[in-house]
Amino acid sequence: HMLTRMLNNLKHIYVEKEDYEHALAVCDLIILLLPQAASERRDRGLMHLQLKCYGRALHDLKAYLELAPEAEDREEIRAHLKTIREALAMLN
Questions:
Q1: pTM of structure
Q2: Computed from CA positions of residues 43, 34, 21, 7, in that sequence, does the dihedral angle turn out positive or negative?
Q3: Residue 21 near residue 37, CB atoms below 8 Å
Q4: Cβ contact 11:23 at 8 Å
Protein backbone atom coordinates (compact mmCIF):
# COMPACT_ATOMS: atom_id res chain seq x y z
CA HIS A 1 0.00 0.00 0.00
CA MET A 2 1.32 3.40 -0.93
CA LEU A 3 -0.79 4.97 1.82
CA THR A 4 0.70 2.63 4.42
CA ARG A 5 4.24 3.55 3.32
CA MET A 6 3.42 7.25 3.56
CA LEU A 7 1.92 6.78 7.02
CA ASN A 8 4.97 4.79 8.14
CA ASN A 9 7.27 7.57 6.96
CA LEU A 10 5.18 10.10 8.86
CA LYS A 11 5.21 7.91 11.98
CA HIS A 12 9.01 7.67 11.86
CA ILE A 13 9.32 11.45 11.53
CA TYR A 14 7.14 11.95 14.62
CA VAL A 15 9.05 9.31 16.60
CA GLU A 16 12.39 10.94 15.70
CA LYS A 17 11.00 14.23 17.03
CA GLU A 18 9.73 12.37 20.13
CA ASP A 19 6.22 13.55 19.25
CA TYR A 20 4.58 10.35 20.48
CA GLU A 21 1.03 11.70 20.51
CA HIS A 22 1.08 12.38 16.76
CA ALA A 23 3.01 9.17 16.08
CA LEU A 24 0.33 7.31 18.03
CA ALA A 25 -2.44 8.84 15.91
CA VAL A 26 -0.63 7.71 12.76
CA CYS A 27 -0.13 4.24 14.22
CA ASP A 28 -3.88 4.03 14.87
CA LEU A 29 -4.50 4.75 11.17
CA ILE A 30 -2.02 2.09 10.07
CA ILE A 31 -3.67 -0.47 12.35
CA LEU A 32 -7.06 0.41 10.86
CA LEU A 33 -5.59 -0.41 7.43
CA LEU A 34 -3.58 -3.45 8.58
CA PRO A 35 -5.18 -4.88 11.74
CA GLN A 36 -2.96 -7.99 11.75
CA ALA A 37 0.33 -6.07 11.45
CA ALA A 38 2.19 -7.27 14.54
CA SER A 39 4.95 -4.67 14.32
CA GLU A 40 2.38 -1.87 14.38
CA ARG A 41 0.89 -3.28 17.58
CA ARG A 42 4.37 -3.34 19.09
CA ASP A 43 5.12 0.21 17.98
CA ARG A 44 1.80 1.52 19.28
CA GLY A 45 2.33 -0.32 22.57
CA LEU A 46 5.77 1.24 22.98
CA MET A 47 4.34 4.68 22.23
CA HIS A 48 1.63 4.14 24.84
CA LEU A 49 4.40 3.18 27.25
CA GLN A 50 6.29 6.41 26.47
CA LEU A 51 3.08 8.33 27.21
CA LYS A 52 2.56 6.36 30.46
CA CYS A 53 -0.73 4.88 29.19
CA TYR A 54 0.10 1.57 30.84
CA GLY A 55 -3.19 -0.26 30.27
CA ARG A 56 -3.13 0.47 26.55
CA ALA A 57 0.56 -0.41 26.34
CA LEU A 58 -0.12 -3.74 28.05
CA HIS A 59 -2.97 -4.52 25.63
CA ASP A 60 -0.95 -3.75 22.48
CA LEU A 61 2.24 -5.48 23.58
CA LYS A 62 0.31 -8.62 24.55
CA ALA A 63 -1.42 -8.51 21.14
CA TYR A 64 2.00 -8.19 19.49
CA LEU A 65 3.26 -11.36 21.19
CA GLU A 66 0.06 -13.19 20.22
CA LEU A 67 0.44 -12.11 16.58
CA ALA A 68 4.20 -12.79 16.49
CA PRO A 69 5.03 -15.41 19.17
CA GLU A 70 8.46 -16.09 17.64
CA ALA A 71 9.45 -12.42 17.32
CA GLU A 72 13.16 -11.76 17.79
CA ASP A 73 12.44 -9.05 20.37
CA ARG A 74 9.98 -11.13 22.41
CA GLU A 75 12.20 -11.18 25.52
CA GLU A 76 12.55 -7.39 25.42
CA ILE A 77 8.77 -7.07 25.05
CA ARG A 78 8.20 -9.50 27.94
CA ALA A 79 10.49 -7.32 30.07
CA HIS A 80 8.39 -4.29 29.12
CA LEU A 81 5.23 -6.20 30.07
CA LYS A 82 6.72 -7.02 33.48
CA THR A 83 7.61 -3.35 34.03
CA ILE A 84 4.12 -2.26 32.97
CA ARG A 85 2.44 -4.74 35.32
CA GLU A 86 4.62 -3.47 38.18
CA ALA A 87 3.72 0.14 37.35
CA LEU A 88 0.01 -0.72 37.23
CA ALA A 89 0.27 -2.52 40.58
CA MET A 90 1.86 0.56 42.16
CA LEU A 91 -0.94 2.76 40.82
CA ASN A 92 -3.63 0.56 42.40
A1: 0.90
A2: positive
A3: no
A4: yes
In three-state secondary structure terms, 37 is: coil
* Residue 92 neighbours by CB under 8 Å, 6+ apart: none
pLDDT tens digits, one per residue of 34-88: 999 999 999 999 999 999 999 999 999 999 999 999 999 999 999 999 999 999 9
- Measure the CA–CA gap between 54 and 85, rounded to whole angstroms: 8
3-state helix, strand, coil in the chain (%, to 5): 80, 0, 20
Q: Which domains does the chain have, with CATH numbers?
A: 2-91 (1.25.40.10)
